[in-house]
């Protein structure tokens, strides 16, 4: 228990309150509801908790994993971990009192600036829950702005992002989601031009796409803009250390999964939803925004701003209901960007890409294996195998403690033998060698 | 335009009617209550607005205020200066800080107040 | 705030010097396959710093900040309790943090077991039947809950599009309702800040899908008619949603499931002590009664023959509310907290939270009139005395002056139905000494306000910056370098 009051103090407090017992204070609660039986195990001590949790963490098998698909095995710099664990950041809350929260506010400002720099966009908010909810909110913003109902999305978007967006639009069955198919692993631009019409609200694309391939987002945005529709690009912020940016290509909204900026994978979270947009859409941005201003003496300071968009003011007319966000993860991303800088991030991108290229070459040498696409990829690629990938994955995992990549059967029959294999800076050439041997042994 | 020559609503909009067109803004009393205006979300030209329904939103730092159409009709012009200078609503709520102009479709203005009635109404509303 | 540290708010980008780097890699022989046409044209404007530069920069910034670790933080409705360090340590174990969200179930047994067991314990604590821990924040949980209701009615073929929200509710409630496509029907509270049964009866109609209740409500008062409210709603075929933001007042002594609510969200970052991180991440699971089980988001954590697995077999599921499972590392912290408490310990949390709030209220009520004279639960709502308001002192001034005394301000101007509200939630982890110091500061501030109101109007005086120009920030937004 983490309670400070002693029995003596409690007595004094009851006296001050003017009651003889605690029961008197809660006499407003109908008796039938008070002190029910709670069927819970006995409390553990700190030592027991430490042991128990270590035991449970040991039940997660430690394996060499080549699974990516939007969540990446990144190295978390030691300095980043150290700063994030500081109680002054960790145990603060939303900076409602700016004078006593300049530290957090400045880090939000630096985070927003770093994201705008990476995506080359005008505005960023202070963070959303994760890449998929950011994506869903961007779709909603497009629908609000355009007043139209048709949503065109590239088949190269993470299917879980599309599912999330559909859940977020559950309010209205009138929305139409229409898929733009892939051709040779990238979005079919011709189909986009054909399907975009006067009823279309927006076009959504991902870069790199779900299959790891780099899309020609510049041409795609141009084709969409020719039809006068809004555009959303979900881009991996890490890859933007090297790749052409959504901002440069003219996208209205650019979102992404910030986990890629050095945050642990932790089975789903906490991650970081990056949300950026063009200046003209800033009022449609959900969530908090930090701005620089001056204090009474003219000194630089930071505050939460443009708050009249938010739920605590607009209530049922707010763009989104988001309140708590992922501030500490955003701080982590800001630290990550500061530690790597533009050159470090580019170098890290090239390491990822080089390792993936190396792996693609080595693994294609496996008998019966072959790269599914010939297009340039970033740090993931699809490998077709002579066996069903799901079974292979199980076998390799069980026998060699290696997770060889994500089985892609969920994308359809033609992917039943496909593995999506991801390389990051945490892997090296001997890992690739081990992966190759393991797959060979299991087919 | 002088405040004394305008008509007013119970929701603190002023309106100046000239034939079948009208200019609309918020009263000086209302802008005082709102505090520093930081943004005006103007309607789109061509939008149809129903009398008594929300026509646009005026934001201060910590609040958002719905502005209601005092008459039904179509938006024919908005005060685009407000996009860069929302403070005009505070500085000059009638002359420079007007919000939008409408082409009136139904000229029923019987429930609007004149300056004297509105002044009295506004005074009573302050506690 | 920091006499020993000179205030320095230079941005990291201003400290940047070309060619400095905080992290280096050993590059393997680089063989890229990315054509130049796919590469970015301009280098991103990110700071170039040494590791030491970065550590000093961010450590300094951490100092210009109030936090639970450093200051009493009586922010009403936010439950700023102590965040135990064991939670941090065990949630950061590599076996947990290195687990990919799409790892195969057989490789994720430890984490899955924790999620499963946490759900079960939370259901038992709250008297509910089933749970999902996918949602990552209170508002995300609310949205999930309202979608459950939507699905429930659509499967039953009922067309209901209204949600009743009391005027004392958190802003997220009406925002959630409209986000899910419902009309919000605002329900006025009565003079005691409670829901008016007659008013409710009039508002309920065949279109009413859900009523969203906060228990105790945002005034810190227990809705004594909660059972009648639930019954009345159910007779109308309406579901009752409970906003669990204030669960700290009930934990271990009252099970919300007993009132008859149909679903509730939990803010694990409040009641279950996970740190707030400067605004997040939180975690916001949903607990439901059996009738709503079939609609829970998928996949669901199930157990069979001693093995845990993710099941997609929920035909009426509302679907996926996020690409991957919730804020797992936050759940791990909450789980450690669950392990640390048995039934008696949980009851002690609620008891001390309520005791502390009433102690503050009793000690200050002569000077700062409470909104309600009855005993409060875990938080109390006070107001500035009339004479101060007449002198032009506002709640904001009191809040700012508190910072000078080394206390974070309470929640102010909320609930909206209380003029100039000061909402204080001390939580159970604060000691009587701290509360006494806070009470003394409040009294001192009242004296100052009487003698020299300018001290308050110009407060804070000791923070790194004076009051900030929010109008400038909003009129000419500068939101990036």
Topology readout:
The complex is a heterotrimer of chains A (443), B (127) and C (481).
Chain A: H1 7-17, H2 22-25, H3 46-59, E1 64-65, H4 78-84, H5 87-90, H6 102-119, E2 123-124, H7 131-146, E3 150-154, H8 159-168, E4 176-180, E5 182-183, E6 186-187, H9 189-195, E7 200-207, H10 217-226, E8 230-235, H11 246-249, E9 253-257, E10 273-277, E11 290-294, E12 300-304, H12 311-314, H13 327-364, E13 370-371, E14 380-384, H14 389-400, E15 402-403, E16 406-407, E17 418-422, H15 429-442
Parallel strand pairs in A: 1-15, 3-4, 3-7, 7-8, 8-9
Antiparallel strand pairs in A: 2-10, 5-6, 9-10, 11-12, 13-14, 14-17, 16-17
Helix pairs in contact in A: 4-13, 6-13, 7-8, 13-15, 14-15
Chain B: E1 7-8, E2 13-18, E3 21-26, H1 28-34, E4 37-41, E5 48-49, E6 54-60, E7 64-68, E8 73-78, H2 81-84, H3 88-91, E9 100-104, H4 115-125
Chain C: H1 12-15, H2 51-63, H3 85-91, H4 94-97, H5 109-126, E1 130-132, H6 138-155, E2 162-166, H7 172-179, E3 183-187, H8 197-203, E4 208-214, H9 226-235, E5 239-243, E6 263-265, E7 286-288, E8 300-304, E9 307-311, H10 328-340, H11 343-364, E10 380-382, H12 386-390, H13 395-404, E11 411-412, E12 422-424, H14 432-451, H15 453-457, H16 470-475
Parallel strand pairs in C: 2-3, 2-4, 4-5, 5-6
Antiparallel strand pairs in C: 1-7, 6-7, 8-9, 10-12, 11-12
């Amino acid at each position: 228990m983490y309670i400070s009051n002693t029995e003596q103090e409690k007595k004094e407090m009851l006296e001050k309150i003017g009651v003889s017992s605690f029961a008197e204070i809660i006499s407003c609660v109908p008796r039938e509801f008070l002190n029910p039986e709670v069927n819970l195990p006995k409390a553990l001590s700190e030592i027991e908790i430490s042991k128990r949790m270590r035991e449970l963490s040991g039940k997660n098998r430690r394996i060499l994993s080549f699974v990516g698909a939007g969540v990446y095995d990144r190295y978390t710099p030691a300095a980043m971990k150290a700063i994030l664990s500081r109680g002054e950041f960790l145990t603060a809350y939303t900076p409602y009192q700016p004078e006593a929260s300049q530290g957090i506010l400045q880090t939000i400002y630096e985070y927003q600036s770093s994201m705008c720099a990476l995506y080359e966009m005008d505005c960023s908010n202070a963070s959303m829950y994760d890449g998929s909810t950011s994506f869903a909110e961007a779709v909603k913003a497009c629908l609000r702005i355009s007043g139209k109902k048709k949503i065109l999305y590239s088949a190269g978007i993470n299917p879980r992002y599309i599912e999330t967006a559909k859940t977020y639009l559950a309010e209205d069955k009138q929305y139409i989601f229409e898929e733009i198919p892939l051709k040779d692993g990238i979005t079919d631009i011709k189909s986009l031009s054909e399907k975009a019409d006067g009823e279309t609200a927006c076009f959504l694309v991902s870069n790199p796409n779900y299959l790891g391939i780099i899309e020609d987002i510049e041409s795609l945005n141009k084709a969409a803009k020719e039809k006068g529709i809004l555009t959303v690009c979900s881009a991996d912020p890490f890859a933007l250390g090297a790749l052409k940016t959504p901002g440069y290509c003219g996208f209205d909204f650019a979102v992404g999964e910030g986990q890629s900026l050095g945050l642990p994978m932790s089975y789903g979270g906490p991650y970081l939803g990056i949300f950026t947009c063009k200046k003209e859409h800033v009022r449609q941005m959900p969530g908090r925004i930090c701005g620089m201003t001056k204090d009474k003496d003219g000194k630089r300071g930071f505050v939460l701003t443009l708050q009249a968009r938010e739920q605590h003011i607009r209530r049922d007319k707010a763009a989104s209901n988001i309140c708590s966000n992922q501030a500490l993860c955003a701080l982590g991303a800001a630290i990550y960007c500061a530690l790597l800088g533009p050159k470090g991030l580019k170098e890290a991108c090239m390491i990822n890409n080089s390792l993936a290229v190396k792996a693609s070459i080595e693994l294609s040498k496996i008998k019966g294996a072959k790269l599914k696409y010939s297009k340039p990829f970033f740090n993931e690629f699809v490998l077709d195998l002579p066996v069903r990938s799901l079974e292979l994955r199980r076998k390799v995992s069980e026998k060699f403690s290696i997770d060889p990549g994500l089985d892609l059967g969920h994308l359809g029959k033609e992917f039943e033998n496909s593995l999506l294999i991801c390389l990051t800076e945490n892997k090296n050439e001997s890992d690739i060698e081990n992966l190759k041997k393991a797959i060979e042994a299991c087919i | 335009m002088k405040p004394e020559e305008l008509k007013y609503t119970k929701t603190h909009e002023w309106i100046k009617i000239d034939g079948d067109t009208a200019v609309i803004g918020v009263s000086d009393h209302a802008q005082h209550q709102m505090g520093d205006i930081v943004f005006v979300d103007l309607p789109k030209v061509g939008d149809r607005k129903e009398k008594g329904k929300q026509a646009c939103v005026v934001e201060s730092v910590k609040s958002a205020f719905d502005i209601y159409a005092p008459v039904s009709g179509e938006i024919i012009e908005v005060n685009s200066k407000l996009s860069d200078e929302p403070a005009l609503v505070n500085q000059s709520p009638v002359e420079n800080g007007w919000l939008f102009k409408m082409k009136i479709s139904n000229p029923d203005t019987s429930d609007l107040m004149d300056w004297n009635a509105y002044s009295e109404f506004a005074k009573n509303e302050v506690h | 705030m920091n006499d020993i540290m000179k205030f320095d708010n230079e941005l990291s980008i201003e400290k940047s010097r070309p060619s400095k780097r905080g992290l280096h890699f050993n590059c393997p022989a680089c063989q890229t396959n990315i054509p130049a046409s796919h590469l970015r044209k301009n280098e991103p404007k990110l700071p170039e710093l040494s590791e030491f530069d970065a550590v000093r920069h961010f450590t300094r910034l951490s100092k210009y900040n109030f936090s639970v670790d450093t200051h009493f933080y009586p922010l009403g409705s936010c439950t700023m309790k102590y965040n135990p360090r064991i939670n941090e340590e065990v949630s950061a174990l590599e076996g947990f943090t290195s687990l990919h969200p799409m790892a195969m179930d057989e490789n994720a047994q430890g984490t899955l077991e924790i999620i499963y067991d946490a759900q079960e314990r939370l259901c038992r604590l709250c008297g509910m039947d089933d749970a999902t821990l996918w949602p990552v924040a209170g508002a995300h949980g609310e949205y999930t809950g309202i979608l459950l209701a939507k699905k429930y009615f659509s499967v039953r073929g009922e067309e209901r599009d209204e949600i009743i929200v009391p005027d004392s509710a958190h802003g997220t409630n009406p925002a959630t309702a409209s986000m899910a496509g419902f009309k919000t029907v605002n329900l006025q509270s009565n003079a005691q800040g409670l829901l008016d049964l007659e008013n409710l009866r009039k508002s309920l109609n065949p279109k009413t899908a859900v009523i969203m209740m906060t228990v105790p409500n945002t005034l810190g008062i227990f809705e004594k008619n909660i059972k009648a409210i639930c019954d009345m709603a159910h007779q109308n075929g309406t579901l009752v949603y409970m906003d669990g933001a204030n669960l700290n007042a009930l934990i271990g002594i009252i099970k919300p499931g007993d009132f008859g609510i149909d679903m509730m969200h939990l803010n694990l970052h409040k009641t279950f002590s996970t740190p707030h991180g400067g605004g997040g991440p939180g975690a916001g699971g949903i607990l439901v009664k059996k009738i709503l089980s079939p609609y829970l988001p998928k996949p669901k954590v199930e157990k069979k023959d001693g093995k845990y697995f993710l099941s997609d077999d929920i035909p009426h599921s509302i679907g996926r509310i996020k690409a991957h499972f919730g804020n797992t590392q936050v759940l791990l912290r909450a789980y450690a907290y669950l392990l640390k408490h048995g039934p008696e310990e949980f009851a002690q949390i609620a008891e001390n939270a309520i005791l502390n709030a009433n102690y503050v209220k009793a000690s200050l009520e002569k000077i700062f009139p409470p909104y309600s004279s009855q005993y409060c639960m875990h938080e109390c709502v006070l107001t500035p005395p009339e004479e101060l308001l007449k002198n032009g002192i506002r709640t904001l001034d009191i809040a700012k002056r508190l910072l000078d005394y080394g206390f974070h301000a309470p929640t102010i101007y909320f609930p909206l139905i209380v003029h100039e509200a000061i909402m204080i939630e001390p939580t159970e982890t604060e000691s009587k000494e701290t509360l006494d110091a806070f009470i003394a500061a409040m009294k001192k501030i009242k004296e100052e306000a009487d003698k020299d109101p300018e001290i308050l109007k110009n407060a804070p005086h000791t923070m790194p910056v004076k009051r900030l120009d929010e109008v400038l920030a909003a009129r000419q937004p500068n939101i990036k370098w």
